[in-house]
Amino acid sequence: MVMALFSSLTPVFIAIICVLIGIILKKTNGEKEKRGTKSKPLSRPWVDEDLKDGTDNHLEEEEVDEEWQGLEENVAHVPFFVERYSEAEMIKRSQMFYELLNKRRSVRFLSDEPVPREVIDNVIRTAGTSPSGAHTEPWTFVVVQDPYLKHKIREIVEEEEEINYKKRMGDRWVNDLKRLRTNWIKEYLDTAPYLILIFKQVYGQLPNGKKKTHYYNEISVSIACGILLAALQNAGLYTVTSTPLNCGPQLRVLLQRPANEKLLLLLPVGYPKKDATVPALTRKPLEDIMVVM
Questions:
Q1: What is the pLDDT of residues 71-112, one digit of tens each?
Q2: At a CB cut-off of 8 Å and minimum separation 6, what does 212 contact?
Q3: Which pTM does this prediction carry?
């Protein structure tokens, strides 16, 4: 009788054991998936290594000369004198400067009409007045006027941009750009009389061969780029700010730049074509961008 009872309960025991095994396996697999999710970085194939913010990438201790960073220990401080404007003059100048920069537009249809080289020299001098972390001035402005080099840059950019638009950027980004009528064809890279490629120096090079820390290099160079855009507008020149994704390494080789320089921006510079058009966009009003406390 006992054997008969045991025989009748055997299928039940087997079913219970199978359920328990299934629960244990499911829990184990779930923990593995969680660990895998934590360790696997978020895939962002459109992000260019050269365009990543390297501000927080500190150099290894053995790479840095802690005793000497190429900076003077005792910098002389001198009296600072400045012309001071009346309140009326300040208001007038600030209003005029705003009106000047409010005319700035991103122009993709640039003429091949020559631009005086001295103007380019002056706007880059102006950009070089930008503040920088510990006054390291971590920027290089490469000015390209040679037609052959400009065309090679166009070939590199268009090849990568076509891949960006079709594969890397994703539908949302591509759709957001449709209203601006942009694509991977960059005619302005051939027609603009000058291309200015701005490289950030992620570290410096000391005479003794060791690396010099460039603090906040990304932010410093970005500020310089803003000043450069204002200087171009002040000179009556136009550009479009472009960040050629995944082109940095090839352009660095083409332009013979050292390994410590990474491409941040590419600016075609010139006059607008007579038939140039721009999107009819508006800017946010002051109350939407300023908070007074």
A1: 667 889 999 999 999 999 999 999 999 999 999 999 999 999
A2: 64, 65, 69, 70, 136, 203, 204, 205, 206
A3: 0.78
